Amino acid sequence: MFNKMENTNEGLKTNTKYAEKTWKLYINRLLGLFFIFVICFTGVILGNERSRAQLPNDISTEILEIAEVFQKEKINVQEWKLYGRKNVYKIRDLVTFQKEVNRLKQSMGHLSWNVMEEEDHWKAVGTHYNDLLKQEETLQLITTHTNSSQTSYLLYEVTGYGWEKPVATEIINNFHSNLTNISHEDFEIFSCMSGDFSAKIEGGLQNTTNILLDAFSAQIVEEIQEDTFVSVSAYTDAWNNVLPTHQGKMNLQIGLRTQGMGDKTTVIVGTPIITVEY
């Protein structure tokens, strides 16, 4: 009987040890899977953060801020532009120019192209009009050359008409996405908006200029005043894109022009400079 009990106890001990061993193995596997999950999850998070850190500069919001000021001051938006510019240093001759044109045609295939090869310059222009967004698009590769030097640069411009924020936001996002398609190197980015209003100006053009300067929290750097025309270069801490001048750094230009009493007044605001004639 004792032998039977001993055998039973031994069996229970063996089963208990086996169960404990199995349970420990199960727990270890769960812990292992948990740590693998934590490591993978951390890797994904760090990878996303690293990807964000490697993205180009944040999408410029200056044009949105200019539009907000126009709307606040009851200025009708007629037209606005985003403009990217960069130098191209790898073009040394006509062959490398043509290679770069072919690369641009592939990366921006929706554009219609016209290539001109003149004695003193080579120029390739791609254009497109988006009926849905009412947006014009132009990409230019220009090489000018003399006997002693040669300069090449890319110009990419989009133009929108009127202002509907959802449409404008899509155009802005497309603009930055296309800049990346054109080149992974940084572009100088310019924003410009033009509009008009027909209300009587109390205090004249100068008063309206001061209202706009206050709206952008900007200080005058240079100014030209005439009876029907005002042009101001200014600086605001709100925007990082800065150009040096003899009078100090600037990143905002404001232009106002009127034809006379009762006529519409044209308003143009650009950062860091106005990129259209007025």
Short description:
This protein is of the alpha+beta class and 278 residues long.
Report on the structure:
Helix content is 39%, strand content 33%. The chain has helices spanning 2-54, 62-72, 94-107, 165-182, 204-215; strands at residues 76-87, 112-117, 121-130, 135-145, 150-161, 188-197, 218-225, 229-236, 252-258, 265-271. By secondary structure, the protein is α+β, with helices and mostly antiparallel strands. Strand 9 and strand 10 form a beta hairpin. It has 5 helices and 10 strands; from the N terminus they run ααβαββββαβαββββ.
The N- to C-terminal Cα distance equals: 113 Å
Percentage of residues assigned to helices: 25-40%
- What structural category do the secondary elements indicate? alpha+beta
Radius of gyration: 32 Å
Mean pLDDT: 81
Helical region count?
5
Strand content: 25-35%
Which helices and strands, and how do they pair?
Layout: H1 2-54, H2 62-72, E1 76-87, H3 94-107, E2 112-117, E3 121-130, E4 135-145, E5 150-161, H4 165-182, E6 188-197, H5 204-215, E7 218-225, E8 229-236, E9 252-258, E10 265-271
Antiparallel strand pairs: 1-5, 1-6, 2-3, 3-4, 4-5, 6-10, 7-8, 8-9, 9-10
Q: Which properties best describe this structure?
A:
278 residues; alpha+beta; ten-stranded antiparallel beta sheet; 10 strands; disordered N terminus
